[in-house]
């Protein structure tokens, strides 16, 4: 009996092909949008995450804390970072190469950079050759700093894109021609050995000038030492092996610094950490909110499609009143009539959902081929779309089906 009812349901769809297609339109759009949005959303999130990783999210930044925060030790400037902290973290990283790749110093000071009569404000960053291993530094021309530059305290600098553009001009040839030229920082001559290409974003180097730590400390900027603690660090960058070990790395870093800085157990940290999970978490939240909103709109479209199905099924009940009367007169039960119309509504919803899913898969694959994004079909979204379609078909088909089942045979046969 069920097989016959299913066959009759699909016969009804074929008998009114155009009307059936219009009825399914809302379901097609809703199911297709749901699958396409969730599939492309996952692919886009993965792609953006990879770009963030390339920009430097496989690193933890240790930053100064608030020396006046409640619970911190009552020592002037204690919340600042120094070369002693850098050395402690180097020892920690050497003991756990499975977690840490390297430790990089940063001594950053805002200053003027002058070339001839042109001067611009820039962030002078004292660092070493390992910096490019924890942050993206796309060299447009020349080279980055080396260990030899650090050892010799060489008067050399690598200029970020925006600083170079303002000093030497926006033309690429003019930027390349700047190699070997001399710029002044705090009145001290520095030879340009490299130009960094533009890399906007949260870790941009565009407004920076890089020089060896020893050069910044001894030749360019004075008074950088903390009393009894050595060179003051603006931050310390720690390269990690993977985003999956961030929590373990954080625990080790905090423990090492609290121990070396003799922070009492009851006191708060007098330093802070900038973790890659923070940036990635914000990004994931934004992406999830956008994807969820569009998926909600797709769900609303499915509900609207269900209302369309209910409307057409009510029309079908009216049009087929005499047919219902004949079937009941020949012995069909209320359950038989109910089942027939529920199956017709379910068939409309499922077929519409399958058409939408097929269209969405085609669109996702085409977009993946056109853009190069590794777009994979979200089979979870496919299952959700099908399950939702079943509930929509049953939910909005039940009332018209029940109305058909409740018709009295004599009244139905009399209907004109």
TrEMBL record:
Subcellular location field? Cell membrane
InterPro entries from the UniProt entry = ABC3_permease_C, MacB_PCD, Macrolide_Exporter_MacB
Which intervals hold domain ABC3 transporter permease C-terminal?
296-408
Key words, A-Z? Cell membrane, Membrane, Transmembrane, Transmembrane helix
GO CC field: plasma membrane
User: Does this UniProt record's set of keywords contain Transmembrane helix?
Assistant: yes
- Name of the protein: ABC transporter permease
Could you say which protein family the record assigns here?
Belongs to the ABC-4 integral membrane protein family.
Organism encoding this protein: Candidatus Chloroploca asiatica
**Where are the membrane-spanning stretches?**
21-41, 293-317, 337-370, 376-399
What membrane topology was assigned to this protein in its record?
A: Multi-pass membrane protein
Pfam families recorded for this chain? FtsX, MacB_PCD
Q: Which GO terms describe its molecular function?
A: transmembrane transporter activity
Every copy of the MacB-like periplasmic core domain together lies at 20-250
